[in-house]
Amino acid sequence: MFGIENITAALLPVDEAFAIDAAGRASAVLIPVRPHSDGTTSLVFTKRPDHMPRHAGEISFPGGLTHEEDVDLSATALRETQEELGLAPDDVEVLGALEPVHTFVSAILIVPFVGVVSAAPVFTPSEAEIAEVLSYPLDELMAAETTVEWPRDGLVYRGFAYPMSDGNTIWGATATIVNELMAIVRSRS
Predict the structure, then answer these.
(1) Angle at alpha carbon of residue 73, lines to 131 and 115, rounded to 5°
(2) Residue 147 CB-density burial (10 A; 0-12 exposed, 13-18 middle, 19+ buried)
């Protein structure tokens, strides 16, 4: 059984400066962590609607590109979480960040922030951006982890995937982020 205490010690400080590739675009996501009274912990994901022009139907964390009004990347993650899930920034305790991830297809730098939400958060998903809110226990994610290879545009994507029991599959940059978090959990258990 994996709990929140397995995560916090290995995160980067929120205020640590991240080098942003001037040629790339910066974005941030929030990994919403839900501790449960039985000592287990779940991660909250979003499923994008099938009609979206980019990443249609994919599983992701709430987040997006930084805006001029965002004071830093953690503000980007919290703003996007509020826009997508209706979760106020004050309802999230940001614990730290994981290493930035460069996306395979869109050349965006993603900085993942880990934040604790209540065990029973009230989400009000944006119908325009979110088809479904998903929650998976760390134990289930750990058991589902697999490596994959997908040919795309003459290249081969090698990475991680999480085929979940409900038929959803977490892959791509989101799976890379989940894998990094799982490595921290494994190293602390």
Answers:
(1) 60
(2) exposed
Put residue 63 in one of left, alpha, beta given phi > 0 → left and psi -120 to 50 → alpha: left
Instruction: Provide the residue count of the chain.
Output: 189
- What's CA 67's distance to the chain center, in Å? 19
Q: Tell me how far CA of residue 71 lies from CA of 21, 79, 93, in angstroms.
A: 18, 11, 17
> Taken in order 161, 164, 167, 173, is the CA torsion positive or negative?
negative
Tell me which amino acid residue 61 is: F
pLDDT (average), residues 54-58: 72
Residue partners of 74: CB distance under 8 A and separation at least 6? 14, 28, 94, 97, 113
φ, ψ at 80 (rounded to 5°): -65, -40
Q: What SS3 class is residue 117?
A: coil
- In which band, very low, low, confident or very high, does the pLDDT at 70 lie, cut at 50, 70 and 90? confident
Q: Where are the alpha helices (DSSP H) in the chain?
A: 5-8, 73-85, 138-144, 172-188
How would residue 10 be classed by pLDDT, with cut points 50, 70 and 90? low
Residue 71: its pLDDT value, please?
Answer: 87
62 within 8 A of 36, measured Cβ to Cβ? no
